[in-house]
Amino acid sequence: MPLSRQIVAYLVIGGLQWLLDCALVIVLSHALLPVACANIAGRVAGAMFGFWANGRYTFASAQPLTGRPLRRFLLIWLALTGLGSGLLGWMQTHHGLQAAWLAKPVLEIAFAVIGFVLSRHWIYRRD
Predict the structure, then answer these.
(1) Residues sharing a CB contact under 8 Å with residue 126, sequence separation 6 or more, in sequence order
(2) Better-predicted residue by pLDDT, 8 or 43
């Protein structure tokens, strides 16, 4: 798939992931779960959908979505989730829950750019 189509597909799938992720963070943190924990739950749900959809459509290949691509995805996902959850927890502690909610989309945009580059050149790369 050409780069322009990959970018469009990644944005569409990413938008759906983001809606799922953010909705869960808001609902769960509103229900008195700490925002860092709610962020992890949201990212798990978004990650499961995104890994499958991007592997099947955006970076489609004949290789199964197990083994090396899955390990690579999990490594990146764990690093970004840990970083994002830590930053959101810090925001909640120092600036309040609403500030953490507002920071969430900004973090996810930055992580989406990082994720696209790593997905295209490392996670789903055919070896």
Answers:
(1) 61, 63
(2) 8
Asked if 60 and 1 count as a contact pair (C-beta separation under 8 A), the reply is: yes
Q: Measure the CA angle with vertex 95, ends 39 and 24; round to 5°.
A: 20
Q: In residues, how long is the chain?
A: 127
Q: Which of 89, 82, 86, 80 is nearest to 109 (CA)?
A: 80
d(CA 27, CA 36): 13
Look at the block and give the residue holding tokens 């690093």: 79
Distance CA 119, CA 25 (A): 24
1 is written with which tokens? 């798939």
Q: pTM score > 0.90 for this model?
A: no
Phi, psi of 69 (to 5 degrees): -60, -40
User: Which residue shows structure tokens 């809606």?
Assistant: 19
Band (pLDDT 50/70/90 cuts) for residue 62 is low
The confidence score (pLDDT) of residue 43 equals: 84
Q: Is the pLDDT of residue 118 over 70?
A: yes
Which residue has tokens 């990082």? Answer: 114
